[in-house]
């Protein structure tokens, strides 16, 4: 049994981690931290988990609690991991962080996109960027992994193989992606309340969404990214465009790149978010448009699955020498 601590266990990603861990053959959630819900039973905070975790409760984080754990997941609001990372790293416990705090390569890029200085810049080099399909070997040997952002994952996975094959102009990439409301977190906000989002479709973060920095870092390209909020609970559909270097078959290029990947499925059909809901699956398609000389590439993921908790567990499996697909599935919940 691998004793697992979750920082941020009371949020949506924390709940998804708990759901996935409950079916994992090796991991067990033994310490569940969440200051705002401290003292409450898991069944009250996450009613869908009441039968899976009877008697479990959320507690307030204390450093001493890390003495009896073998793995740490952090699903905290932005900025919190910077204050806790040194404490966790000095324990030499495998650590997977979902926050944006350690995803970028350098503090100057972080400050540019996040608007303030990094509080622990010396630790940036301690983390491996967490998309297994890109960095599998580095993740296997890492003690600390910064799991990729949900939008970034949805854009990087379809575009990276095409850039690596020199099929597209790296200065021409445009990403339009729509996310379910759970991507905004559990805290009540007017912008993501039912009355605001129901029956509406809106863009936000124009020209400056922070996941742009991850996309550009991982792709080695220039990206114009526009996120959208769609009135559904979970899922991301990313529609990506780029100028082709010449006539090509991008669908075949994706099929070749991901032929041996357990969670990536390349399909001729335009994918839908419902196909991957509740799973760690990724569905991709692509077209070359001879008329305009551009590529159209589409990806669908679950923002709480491959975009968050599922990818965290996939990374942890690699770090711990467990089968990479343990506790995870590509099977979506449909309809």
Describe the protein in words.
- This protein is α/β, with parallel strands linked by helices.
- The protein has 2 domains: 2-148 and 306-319, Rossmann fold, CATH 3.40.50.720; 150-303, Dihydrodipicolinate Reductase, domain 2.
- 28% of the residues lie in helices and 21% in strands.
- It contains 10 helices and 13 strands.
- The protein has helices at 12-22, 42-45, 80-89, 107-114, 132-140, 150-164, 194-197, 211-219, 250-257, 305-319; strands at 2-7, 27-33, 71-74, 95-97, 128-130, 144-147, 173-179, 202-203, 223-229, 236-243, 264-266, 282-289, 294-301.
- The longest helix has 15 residues, at 150-164.
- The chain is globular, with a radius of gyration of 19 Å.
- The chain starts with a strand and ends in a 16-residue tail after the last helix.
- It catalyses: N-acetyl-L-glutamate 5-semialdehyde + phosphate + NADP(+) = N-acetyl-L-glutamyl 5-phosphate + NADPH + H(+).
- Residues 3-142 form the Semialdehyde dehydrogenase NAD-binding domain.
- The active site is at residue 150.
């Amino acid at each position: 049994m691998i004793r697992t601590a979750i920082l941020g266990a009371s949020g949506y990603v924390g709940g998804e981690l708990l759901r996935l861990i409950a079916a994992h053959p090796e991991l067990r959630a033994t310490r569940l931290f969440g200051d705002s819900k401290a003292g409450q039973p898991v069944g009250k905070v996450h009613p869908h988990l009441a039968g899976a975790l009877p008697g479990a409760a959320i507690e307030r984080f204390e450093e001493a609690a890390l003495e009896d754990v073998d793995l740490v997941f952090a699903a905290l609001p932005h900025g919190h991991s910077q204050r806790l990372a040194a404490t966790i790293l000095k324990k030499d416990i495998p650590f997977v962080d979902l926050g944006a705090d350690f995803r970028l390569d350098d503090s100057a890029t972080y400050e540019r996109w996040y608007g303030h200085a990094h509080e622990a810049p010396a630790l940036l080099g301690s983390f491996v960027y967490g998309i297994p399909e890109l960095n599998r070997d580095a993740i296997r040997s890492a003690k600390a992994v910064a799991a990729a952002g949900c939008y970034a994952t949805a854009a990087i996975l379809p575009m990276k193989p095409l850039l690596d094959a020199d099929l597209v102009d790296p200065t021409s990439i445009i990403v339009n992606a729509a996310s379910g409301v759970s991507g905004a977190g559990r805290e009540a906000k007017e912008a993501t309340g039912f009355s605001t989002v129901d029956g509406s479709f809106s863009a936000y973060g124009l020209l400056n969404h922070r996941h742009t920095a991850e996309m550009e870092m991982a792709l080695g390209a220039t990206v114009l990214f526009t996120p959208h909020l769609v009135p559904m609970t979970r899922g991301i559909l990313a529609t990506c465009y780029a100028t082709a270097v010449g006539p090509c078959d991008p669908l075949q290029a994706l099929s070749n790149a991901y032929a041996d990947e357990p969670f990536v499925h390349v399909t001729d059909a335009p994918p839908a978010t419902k196909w991957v809901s509740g799973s760690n699956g990724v569905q991709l398609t692509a077209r070359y448009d001879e008329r305009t000389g551009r590529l159209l590439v589409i990806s669908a993921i679950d923002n709480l699955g491959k975009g968050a908790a599922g990818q965290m567990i996939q990374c942890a499996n690699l770090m711990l020498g467990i089968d990479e697909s343990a506790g995870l599935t590509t099977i979506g919940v449909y309809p």
